[in-house]
Every structure is written in C-alpha cells, then in structure tokens.
C-alpha cells in the first residue's frame, strides 16, 4: 500500500444486488504493508464478519460516515488490477455482480502458499522450449475459427496442434506473456498436458519453474491455488484448464484458445452465468490478444463471429477431410427392413462389420441414453407404460429392479397395462447398461467394456481390444482410432432447443473423430432415420458448412446469435416492471415465458438492455420488492 493511502474500497460478499458496490474501510497501521489492490480481506458488514476484495486504495474516504477498519488481510493479493477490470467487464456484460465474478475467477485461497517467493525461474530456458514446441503449430489467423480434423492418434482433440499454437503465440509475443488453452473436461485437459510434455515442455513446480500449469479442480485446493498464482504472476507462460481458466489473470495475454466451444460445460451454472467463449472473445477484443475457437464441429456462435468479421474461418480442403474421416453409413428404417433385422436395435449389416473388426482391433457402440431400461411398453398392445400414481415415465434401473417411476420414485413390481390388462412389458428404450449386457450375450468370446458417468468413465487409451459400449460424452479414445463404431439411436431427439440439430451433429462428429480414417478401414454405422442436414454434415464431414447454414437461417429469422436473448424470471409485477424499464430500448422484443419472459434484442443495443434491466434488479432489491432474475444469452 502507498504511504498516502489510508482507505480501502472493498466489494463485499453479498447475494443482494443493491450491495454490489464499493464500501470504504480504514486500513489499520498493522495491515498497511499487506493491504493492496486485489487483496482478499475480512471486514465487518451489517454486524457480521464477511469476506471482501480490495478494489481501490485512496487517501480520503468517499463518505462522511464513520469507517470500520479491515480486520484481516491475505498475505498476497489474489487479483491484479487487470483482473479486477476484466471482472467488472464480465459482470456488466452479463448483468451480474462483481463479487460473483471474482469468486468464480479465483479458487479458494491457501494461506500457506502466500508465504512463498513467487519469482521467475530460468525464463530463458522456458522461452527456448516454448519456441521449439511452437515450431509445429498450424498457420492460423490472429483471430480464427478452426474446423479441425482428427490427428493420427485419434484423440478427443488435436492436443499437439493446440499446445503448439499456444506455445508459438507466447514465443512470438516475448517474455512475460502468456497463453491460455481452455478445454471442456478433465479428459481433454489430461490430453493437453500429455501433449505439452511430449513437446518437451515442463510442468511448473514451486522453486523449480516450468513452462505450463494445469488448472484442475480435481488436483486439490493447494495445487489448484498454486497453479492459479503461478499463472497470475507469469511464472508459467502456458495455462491449461477448464471453464474457469477463461477468467485466469495473467500479466500479458498473447492468445486464448477454446476447444469445442459448443460444449455445454462452458456455460457456468452460477450467476452471472458467463460462457467461456464469450469471455475469450471479450479478452481478444479488449486486450488485443489472439483468439482461437477450434472444434471438430464449430458452433453456430463461432460461425456468427466469422459472419461479423470478428474472426476468420479456417476449414480443411475437401481432399484433406476425406483422407482424415472414416466412412459413414446411415442405416434407416427402410434399410433395416430390407436386411431382415426388423426392430432389433443392432442391424445385421452393422453387427457383421463390428463383429469381424472386433477380432483384431477395438470397436465401439455408442448409446445416447444412460441407465438400463429408460422406457417400457406393453408386449401385447404396444402401449407405453406409465406410473399409476403420477403418470410419470417408468424405468428399470438394473436387471434385478422392478419398474420404477422416474418422477415420484414409486416401485411397481406387479404392473398391468391399462389398455389391455397384460402383465408383460418389454424395453421400449434401452440405456447403455442394457445394450452392454446384450452384447456380452451376443459375443461371449469378446471382452465388452462399459463406459458411462454412472458406471465409471474409461480413461483414454485404456482399451486395446474388445467392444467399448459408451454414452457420447464417455467414449474413450483408443490408440490409432476405433476400427468400427455403431451409433445406436442416432435419430434420437437431442436436448438443446434451438441448438438441438447442431448438437446432434457435434455429438456424432466428435464420436466419428475417434474412428480411424476410411482409407485404413475405419467405418461408422449410424442407426436411425437421421435428419437430412445431420446426415449430410456427418457423411461428407462438413460440420462447418452446417454451422454456416444454421447461422444463415437464424439471420433470416432474427434469432440468436443474430440477436441476443435475455431470460427473465420473476412474478408478473417484476416482468411488467422490466417492460417499462426496456422502453428506453425500443428494439427489444419481449415474449412471455413460463418462468417470466424472454427478451430478444439486437446485438448493438443488447448492452443498453442489460444495463437497464440490471438497474431495475438493483432498484427492486433495494426496495425489498419481489426479485427479478435475468440470464443473458440464455439458450432458447
């Protein structure tokens, strides 16, 4: 703290919107050397001891009121001034509070770490390693949307290329610069860390230095906070992490990369509900750093950035795509009728290729539904079974379980069809566990591996032979790729509302990327009457064309991402007040919604609408009125 700064302006922990502002506190002489901008402190607020963050230091208070003193202060700031500025911008962008962004930005502090010396170790050697690792980087524009192809290892992402791109951006930008690589899950994070080590980069360790840190929630609080501080101080120039890494403070940002930005893992479930892709684009625009949105199947939002001229599209040539992609065959209902497989979930033509390939290489079966049996139907008349108590869907959790209501949990061991009184029911929808059980009976001499969130996800490259049965997010990569992949129920409606069709394309493209190239015998069989656009995108390996077409359609209909959506939740009085507040933004259209309302507004006036609604939220909080909650860029 400077000698003439005796007052700290602090944002305090509070869920009340009208308390989202700075409060003045005196800095006691005992803490004068510790309190700095970005310090975490404990202060008395409304008679309680609460947490806070110092946002400014001043010589004079901004009020005539009697000030309280700061009670305690962390040994090291958890935020830089630039980090606080980013947090303010994100809070305003999403109509949220500064405190909410700050708590999402930094992990919980570990006091023992703040006593260490946070100094740079052997920067020259690190720069040399980064320059060498970046030599294999793909040539991309400074702001790019990259429709990537699977590499030779057929992993969940082209980790080597992404790490090389990040390393090159740091090496070209100079000492004390950093690059951030954001991935959706722990599997992709492990693949990137492995690729960094394979490229000769060294993971940062306290006192020893290094080239990269991994921001991993599963690593434990000490390792996580140490990695955060190392990145914040520029001690590790390459930052690998999941969604929170998009907010990671660094001294100077050379580039930020987001892999597979259409993943729902990037939308934070906590207020203010930021999206990693949006934060990355904000940092690229405001800080002037490079931006890379890369995916096997680029999102419609990424296509919008290209359409707006914010980024350049990088797509493979058609011959490159054909050489990298597996052969894809769609088996519809008519095809199944012709080959005699009838209503069986595994068509004979798909089973024959799968069975033959399983003798020498790993093969996969992808099942969209988790669980065992997810729906029952009467064997005699075909009527779907429902809970007699609440009419909810009946499921069978395991082979030994009776039919159980998904909604109320009631078990029905003695069930009768209300239409024909039959007591015999069969599986109308099978989950991944039931499919795995049947495959074990169909191929008793082949090992069947099950991978799902409920039963445990197999790690990448853990399987070298046999049949892997998995849900879409749990399909592990195998070395060199699967020889065959059968997608059961490829016509199943996907969640996602407006993005449902593109979500299906992303699911199946990401799965097909784990299969070896068609020239090496790799093939995918998609079972079901798949919609024409999905079929075309997957069979021709043109997900970028599908994203572009989807954006063009939404432009004609003026739907997101052409316009921005703001979902409002509250009672009728709160929604009516929002209508009044939005009169200052005449372009805003308000439509009713079961929870409140949905606002559609042009991108040019969206921030005006968010600011007006945020002012209303604060006003209602101060007056003690019924709350109004908003979610900016809410999915439709």
Plain-language structure description:
- The radius of gyration is 27 Å and the shape is globular.
- The protein has four domains: 7-79, no CATH class; 115-320, 3-Layer(aba) Sandwich (Rossmann fold), CATH 3.40.50; 325-491 and 521-533, no CATH class; 563-632, Alpha-Beta Plaits (2-Layer Sandwich), CATH 3.30.70.
- It has 17 helices and 26 strands.
- The longest helix has 18 residues, at 606-623.
- The two termini are 48 Å apart.
- The protein has a seven-stranded parallel sheet, with helices on both faces. A six-stranded parallel sheet has the order 13-22-21-14-20-19, sandwiched between helices.
- With 636 residues, the protein is α/β, with parallel strands linked by helices.
The chain-level structural class is alpha/beta
Helix content: 25-40%
* Rg for CA atoms: 27 Å
The CATH topology of the largest domain turns out to be: Rossmann fold
Global geometry: globular
Counting structural domains, the number is 4
Distance between the termini: 48 Å
The CATH first-level class of the largest domain comes to Alpha Beta
CATH architectural group of the largest domain: 3-Layer(aba) Sandwich
Number of strands: 26
How many DSSP helices? 17
Low-pLDDT stretches are none
Produce the secondary structure layout.
Layout: E1 7-12, E2 22-26, E3 40-45, E4 48-58, E5 72-73, H1 81-94, H2 98-105, H3 123-133, E6 143-147, H4 159-173, E7 178-182, H5 186-198, E8 212-215, H6 221-232, E9 238-241, E10 253-259, H7 276-287, E11 290-295, H8 300-307, E12 312-314, H9 318-324, E13 327-331, H10 333-339, H11 348-357, E14 363-366, E15 373-378, E16 394-395, E17 404-405, E18 425-430, H12 432-442, E19 448-451, E20 467-470, E21 484-487, H13 500-512, E22 523-527, H14 532-539, H15 543-557, E23 563-569, H16 572-581, E24 589-593, E25 596-602, H17 606-623, E26 629-632
Parallel strand pairs: 6-11, 6-12, 7-9, 7-10, 8-9, 10-11, 13-22, 14-20, 14-21, 19-20, 21-22
Antiparallel strand pairs: 1-2, 1-4, 3-4, 3-5, 15-18, 16-17, 23-25, 23-26, 24-25
Helix pairs in contact: 1-2, 3-4, 4-5, 8-15, 13-14, 13-15, 14-15, 16-17
């Amino acid at each position: 703290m400077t000698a003439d700064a005796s007052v700290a302006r602090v944002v305090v922990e509070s869920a009340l919107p009208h308390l989202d502002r700075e409060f003045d506190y005196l800095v006691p002489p005992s803490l004068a050397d510790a309190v700095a901008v970005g310090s975490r402190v404990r202060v008395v607020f409304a008679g309680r001891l609460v947490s806070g963050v110092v946002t400014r230091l001043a010589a004079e208070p901004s009020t005539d009121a009697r000030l309280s003193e700061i009670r305690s202060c962390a040994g090291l700031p958890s935020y830089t001034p630039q980090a606080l500025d980013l947090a303010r911008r994100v809070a305003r962008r999403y109509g949220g509070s500064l405190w909410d962004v700050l708590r999402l930005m930094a992990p919980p502090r570990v006091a023992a770490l703040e006593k260490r010396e946070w100094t740079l170790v052997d920067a020259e050697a690190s720069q040399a390693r980064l320059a060498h690792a970046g030599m294999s980087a793909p040539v991309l524009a400074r702001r790019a949307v990259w429709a990537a192809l699977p590499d030779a290892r057929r992993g969940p992402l082209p980790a080597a290329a992404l790490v090389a791109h990040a390393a090159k951006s740091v090496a070209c930008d100079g000492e004390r610069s950093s690059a951030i690589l954001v991935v959706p899950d722990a599997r992709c994070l492990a693949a990137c860390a492995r690729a960094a080590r394979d490229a000769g980069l060294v993971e940062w360790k306290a006192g020893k230095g290094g080239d990269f840190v991994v921001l991993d929630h599963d690593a434990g609080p000490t390792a996580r906070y140490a990695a955060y501080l190392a990145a914040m101080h520029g001690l590790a120039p390459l930052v690998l992490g999941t969604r929170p890494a998009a907010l990671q403070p660094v001294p100077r940002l050379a580039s930020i990369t987001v892999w597979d930005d259409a993943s729902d893992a990037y939308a934070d479930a906590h207020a203010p509900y930021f999206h990693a892709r949006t934060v990355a684009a904000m940092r690229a625009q405001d800080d002037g750093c490079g931006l890379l949105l890369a995916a096997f199947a680029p999102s419609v939002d990424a296509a919008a950035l290209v359409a707006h001229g914010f980024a350049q599209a990088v797509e493979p040539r058609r011959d490159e795509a054909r050489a990298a992609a597996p052969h894809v065959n769609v088996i519809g209902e008519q095809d199944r009728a012709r080959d005699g497989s009838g209503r069986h979930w595994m068509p004979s033509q798909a089973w024959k290729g799968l069975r033959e390939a399983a003798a020498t290489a790993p093969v996969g079966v992808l099942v969209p539904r988790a669980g065992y049996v997810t729906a029952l139907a009467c064997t005699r008349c075909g009527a779907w079974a429902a809970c007699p108590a609440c009419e909810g869907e009946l499921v069978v959790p395991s082979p030994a379980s009776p039919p159980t209501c998904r909604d109320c949990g009631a078990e029905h061991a003695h069930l009768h069809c209300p239409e024909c009184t039959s007591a015999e029911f069969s599986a109308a929808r099978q989950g991944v566990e039931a499919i795995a059980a049947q495959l074990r009976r169909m191929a008793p001499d082949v090992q069947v591996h099950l991978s799902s969130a409920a039963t445990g996800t197999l790690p990448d490259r853990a399987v070298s032979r046999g049949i892997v049965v998995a849900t879409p997010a749990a399909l592990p990569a195998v070395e060199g790729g699967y020889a065959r992949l059968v997608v059961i129920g490829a016509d199943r409606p996907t969640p996602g509302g407006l993005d449902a069709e593109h979500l299906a394309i992303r699911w199946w493209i990401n799965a097909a990327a784990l299969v070896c190239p068609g020239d090496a015998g790799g093939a995918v069989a998609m079972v079901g009457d798949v919609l024409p656009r999905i079929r075309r995108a997957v069979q021709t390996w043109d997900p970028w064309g599908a994203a572009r077409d989807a954006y063009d359609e939404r432009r004609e209909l003026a739907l997101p991402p052409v316009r921005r959506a703001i979902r409002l939740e509250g009672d009728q009085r709160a929604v009516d007040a929002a209508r009044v507040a939005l009169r200052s933004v005449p372009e805003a259209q308000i439509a009713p919604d079961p929870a409140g309302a949905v606002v559609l507004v042009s991108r040019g006036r969206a921030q005006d609408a968010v600011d007006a609604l945020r002012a209303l939220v604060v006003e209602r909080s101060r007056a003690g009125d019924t709350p109004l909650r908003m979610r900016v860029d809410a999915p439709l």
